[in-house]
Fold these 2 entries.
Entry 1:
Amino acid sequence: MFTGIIVERGDVVSLRRKQAGAVLALRAFALAQNAAPGDSIAVNGTCLTAVKIEGNLLSFDLSEETVKSTNLGRLTAGVKVNLEPSLRPDGKLGGHFVTGHVDAVGKIRSKTALGDAFKIVIDAPPRVTELLVEKGSVAVDGISLTVVDVSGDAFSVVVIPHTAQVTTIGFKRAGDTVNLEADIIGKYVARFLARGGGATAAGKDNSFMKSFLQAGYL
């Protein structure tokens, strides 16, 4: 489990394809100091397991599914990636609950300056946009961001200067890809409703569902 608060940007050293999947090597600094083999680390919002750590060089095995369903398979040497260690039980939940399981790869449609901030419109498939709500949360390349508005095939976010400076979203441009993960609470509520669970669990007054609607999850 993660929170979408990026601790640093790592530098890709290599992405070596193998028969099924790939091996990703990258350099980290602050994060590498306390990392150990077996740790879960989010790389561009994708939960990976560190299999080898040598100084500030971290290596990860990528399954073929990860290569196909995220933008990690397109990484090249020198590219920067967002990094976040898994959430500790006593850690701060500064963003929102992020699982590190990418729902889809989106594409930046436009990036417009708003003073010293940026408004970014991202193309996304319906399986992602139907789970997003205005003022709700979304993880973009692992960054916890607030949804500004949603249309059928896209949504927008506003990125403040600090976020632009410490994550990869600051230098990404129109046409670049981003990993997307919708808010997990919204996923569970949508699944619950799709299976007809509202009346069973909430009773006739629907108070349970109303609380989620008022909270903005649907």
Entry 2:
Amino acid sequence: MPNIKLMKLPPLHEEKVDLDAHLNRFERTCRAFNVPQWQWSFQLARFLQGQALDVYQRMTDEDVGEYDLLKNGLLKRFRLTERAYRKGFKRVRIEVGETAEQFVDRLKKYLTKWREMTGFDAIYEGLQNMILKDQFFITLDKPLQTFLREKRKLNLNEMTQAVDSYVEAHGHEINRSETKQNKSN
């Protein structure tokens, strides 16, 4: 039996913490401590406060032990819906000091959450890579877009490696694209 008392996480402060990141950290910690999934809901409740705790307390006695129901209730309460992940995917931009590979990893997380919320199967890897490649490309500044166009057809991995090599060789920071995004995304 795992020693659950050793499992320590900061409380969830909804105004300060990214709920999605907090849940991801919680799930990883549960797996690391071999906490049986039937206990996850009760363990998560130890770290909830405010509106998040209200979601837990409003669950029925029959549902309170269902982690997936609690997680979905929290996601809905904090409006982390299909639409929110889609918008996040469309709006995410490369951060100063972030490598192309790190940026694409963040894009993948948004896309995965978006896909999970829509209920699509994860068998469309080619489509996923196409969407990631497109979104990555349009977020780059014009010189990097031109550089990649000159390289012709690159897969997503080749594209991120080429951008990272360009940045390293030219001492160039990856800048945000000046492309106007459609506000209705």
